[in-house]
Amino acid sequence: MHLGVNLGLFPTTGITLPLFSYGGSSLLASMLIIGIVDNCLENSAGRQQPVAPKMG
Questions:
Q1: Count of CA atoms in the C-beta half-sphere (13 A) of 49
Q2: Considering only CA atoms, which of 22, 2, 20, 21 is closest in space to residue 12?
Q3: Are 10 and 1 within 8 A, CB to CB?
Q4: C-beta of residue 37 within 8 angstroms of C-beta of residue 31
Q5: Which of 21, 12, 26, 14 is nearest to 1 (CA)?
Q6: How far apart are CA 49 and CA 31, in angstroms?
């Protein structure tokens, strides 16, 4: 992380780390995003069409 900041690949301030930042709003936003992604993945797994067995 420190190397990335020194090379200019990451900003020095302004971005909170998900699930590590202090503060309720950051934790709430992280959990909300995780819940939405988990719901999308769970719903998309149920929509896959079953593979028909090969005859012969």
A1: 3
A2: 2
A3: yes
A4: no
A5: 12
A6: 30
Length of the chain: 56
Q: How far is CA 8 from CA 1, 2, 12, 15, in A?
A: 11, 10, 8, 14
Q: What HEC string does the chain produce?
A: CHHHHHHCCCCCCCCCCCCCCCCHHHHHHHHHHHHHHHHHHHHHHHCCCCCCCCCC
pTM over 0.70? The answer is: no
What is the residue-level pLDDT of the chain in tens, covering all 56 positions? 778 888 888 777 776 666 666 677 777 888 899 999 999 988 876 666 666 667 75
